[in-house]
Amino acid sequence: MTKSTTRFVQIPSELSSVAVLGAADAGLREVEHAFPEADITVRGKDVQIVARSARADEDAAKAEYAFRRMIDAAYEQPMDAYEVRRMLERDILHNDEHNVRINRIGHDGGVLGNSIISSSYAINNSASRAENEFSRDSSELLPSSEEAHRRAMSRRARMSKGVITFAGGNPVRAKTAGQTAYVQAMDCNIVTFGIGPAGTGKTYLAVAKAVRALEDGRVRRIVLTRPAVEAGENLGFLPGTLNDKVDPYLRPLYDALSDMLGSAQLKRYLDENVVEVAPLAYMRGRTLNDAFVILDEAQNATVQQLKMFLTRLGFNTTMVITGDSTQVDLAVVRSGLVSIEKILGEVKDIAFVHLQAEDVVRHALVGRIVEAYENYDAMLERKKRERTKESTERNNG
Known about the structure:
Elements: E1 5-10, H1 17-21, H2 26-34, E2 38-43, E3 46-51, H3 57-74, H4 81-93, E4 100-105, E5 114-119, H5 120-124, H6 127-134, H7 138-141, H8 146-159, E6 163-167, E7 170-173, H9 177-188, E8 191-195, H10 202-215, E9 221-226, H11 242-261, H12 263-271, E10 275-279, E11 291-295, H13 303-310, E12 318-323, H14 336-344, E13 350-354, H15 364-396
Helix pairs in contact: 2-3, 2-4, 3-4, 3-8, 9-10, 10-11, 11-12, 13-14
């Protein structure tokens, strides 16, 4: 029985199908003609690519990669049919590394869209060997492998205005005025504090900037850290390896990195120490050079811990500190984030950006929840001032 595999590509909601697939689906037709062994169906903004055999799966994977390239282009300058054809021939179909050739009679040749893809495996070897080669994991065969796709996304990000990097093929960019100011501050300063409520993109945008700096070769590694406040930072008393101990506290950082790098690339970077994720307690005594360093949940760092972290700054290093001063989990000691702006607010090359409820980019209800809490806190502060004023007047009277 023939085994079929199905791939899906979703056109982002902010893009029109015409911008991606072309007027009268001209770009779509180019992809269909280039990969006749893949059945391509479009319903609304969902593209389904079906390979009816293991051998045809290479065509399906290449077609998927082509559609993702077309989506990337649509954010800046949508491809017309000619540009799609050029992209297919230059970047996807001509792939000497994997012994794939194409003989094509294109639009300029008088026969509209006919294409024959032939593999030297099939020509020079038996059909059984060809089947084995084409059934190999597509991540090994194609330019649409995770690493190649990530490099393509990095190049696209450099060309696309406002795009920091890509996560799952979708652009990561500032979406509000506050986020834009935050991103600009990271570009212009050595140390940036991003302070604001949950859902404002403080951590995600900082991780995106770190990934972009690594991809551009401006830093050699990424270091991400958080206070493990639930364990009292006494991780030595917890069971298991270091990873077992810290994973629950650092999972949000892993998730953001995985979105942008892909799980396989992230694992390689972790193994090679290109990316390091560790609790704040493990930063003591180090000097961090050639790195993009992020301290997340800084509201749970004490005054002493925050001072310790900031003095880890080395040459060619950027630091971003994120936190929400209204969500302090420290039971007794004072949060270092609360007073840090009074201490460092006038220091050159250090920026403070305060994000607000209107910068929340999660569910709309999150923004309303944040605003309600802010109003409640303001009411408590107002009543406190009124009581203080009344007490002072009574004492003076």
